[in-house]
Amino acid sequence: MATATPKPIKCKAAVGRAAGEPLQIEEVVVAPPKAHEVRIKIICTSLCHSDVTFWRMKGNPLAVHPRIFGHEAVGTIESIGEHVDEFKVGDLVVPVFTGQCHECADCTSERGSNICSLLPFRISPAMPRDGTTRFTDMNGESIYHFTGVSSFSEYTVVDVTQVVKLDAAVEHNKLCLLSCGVSTGVGAAWKLAGVDVGSTVAIFGLGSVGLAVAEGCRIRGASRIIGVDLNPDKFELGKKFGLTDFVNPKEIGDKSVSKVITEMTNGGADYCFECIGLASLMSDAFKSTHQGWGKTIILGVEMHGSPLCIAPYELLNGRCVMGSLFGGIKPKDDIPTLLNKYLNKELELDKFITHEIGLDEINKAFDLLLEGKSLRCIIWMDK
User: Fold this and answer.
1) What is the mean pLDDT of the chain?
2) Which of 47, 119, 212, 269 is the most exposed, having the fewest neighbouring CB atoms within 10 Å of its CB?
3) Three-state DSSP string of 94-140
4) 64-112, pLDDT tens digit by residue?
5) pLDDT at 113 over 90
6) Residue 310 in 3-state DSSP?
7) DSSP secondary-structure letter at 192?
8) Which residues of 317-326 are buried (b: 16+ CB within 10 A; e: fewer)?
9) How many CB atoms within 10 Å of residue 111?
10) 80, 189 Cβ separation under 8 angstroms
């Protein structure tokens, strides 16, 4: 129970007013948390490619403005609403874009589902329980949410199912990474694929999530980790994350990528991960897996809405395709485990951070990501 009634807070936020246009630093009002909600003082946040995708989206019902983007962050609980027993003011937490309620059939299932059926994941412009917003501008007009997090603000309100408490005295910029990208990639290798010792892996797309998959495969003991990317500089970078081989589709002549990988791995990779979001690459990844047991894990959201087409007979030989949301991570259960892996020096987080800036410079983070110059740019609220 809260000890005092929380009041509205005025603070700075980076607001997206129109698709693809630079974010504007504005003063906004953040309403108090309602029942089953907490208000978080954001310490730092970072830019994920999903933010960019929806920031520049036009002509889609999901493209809503004005909006506060951001979903990868770390902060402290500033105030709590009614019926909140899991957290107290001052707790160090990471918000996440998908919840874990500990009550529904999915969250309590031992089959591994991380799709909460009480409050399922949606790209919603509002809070998940009552469909309203907690942000207004200085004219009293509503500003919309993004994935229930909206961390490009000094303060934000998040449902309790989407908040994970962390106790370790770890640098905040490292904790921030566990909120989305690193957990997604490492989780896909660990929770979904179950990459085993000595296996062969191919990763299509070597952005932050793809490299996090490589990190997860390295931790799991894969003997060969093949990266597929059009940027030749990604091979040297990828070696830091466990990459052993590299395929540039522009440098293989008339051969297909799947043909090259099949030849490299004596029949196909045990596991393939698609981390871009192109149906053609998803198909290439599937064709690159070994007959009889090959697994293809899809992490990328198809950017053009194109379907994945696989002939039914191709599934008869034992290969399979799996979808991945948040790498199969159950946030409240598994993020603390990933933190322990970092503390035990199994999981390396430092190498994901390439830039650090203040909130006033947030548009520079977009430029760096779009230019392919950054993995994770940490955005500090007090810098």
Assistant:
1) 95
2) 119
3) EECCCCCCCCCCCCCCCCCCCCCCCCCCCCCCCCCCCCCCCEEECCC
4) 999 999 999 999 999 999 999 999 999 999 999 999 999 999 999 887 6
5) no
6) coil
7) I
8) eebebeebbb
9) 6
10) no
What residues contact 248, with CB distance under 8 A and at least 6 apart? 228, 229, 230, 232
Asked if residues 152 and 362 have their Cβ atoms less than 8 Å apart, the reply is: yes
- Give residues with Cβ within 8 angstroms of 59, minimum separation 6: none
pLDDT at 13 over 90: yes
Q: How far is CA 66 from CA 31, 157, 357, in A?
A: 17, 17, 23
Does 303 have pLDDT greater than 80? no
Name 139's Cβ contacts closer than 8 Å, sequence gap at least 6: none
- Distances in Å between the Cα of 109 and the Cα atoms of 115, 116, 161, 330, 336 are 10, 10, 16, 11, 19
Model confidence at 59, pLDDT cuts 50, 70, 90, reads confident
Rounded Cα–Cα distance for residues 212 and 63 (Å): 28
Tokens 């191709």 -> residue:
314
Nearest by Cα to 26 from 66, 77, 76: 66
- Contact yes or no for 82/3 (Cβ under 8 A): no
- pLDDT score of 2 more than 50: no
Cβ atoms 79, 91 nearer than 8 A: no
| Residue where the block lists tokens 């603000």 | 153
CB 108 within 8 A of CB 102: yes
Crossing angle, helix 257-264 and helix 279-287, to 10 degrees? 30
pLDDT given at position 3: 57
Round to whole Å and give the CA distance between 301 and 53.
10
- Which pTM value belongs to this model? 0.94
What the block records as the tokens of 163 is 């908040």
Q: Provide the terminal-to-terminal Cα distance of the chain, rounded to the nearest Å.
A: 33
Angle at 238 between CA 233 and CA 241, to 5 degrees: 160
H/E element holding 362?
A: helix 362-370
Can you tell me the mean pLDDT for 172-182? 96
- pLDDT band at 302; cut points 50, 70, 90: confident
Distances (CA, A) of 247 to 199, 203, 222: 18, 10, 18
Q: How many CB atoms lie within 10 A of CB 82?
A: 11
Residue 148 DSSP class: T
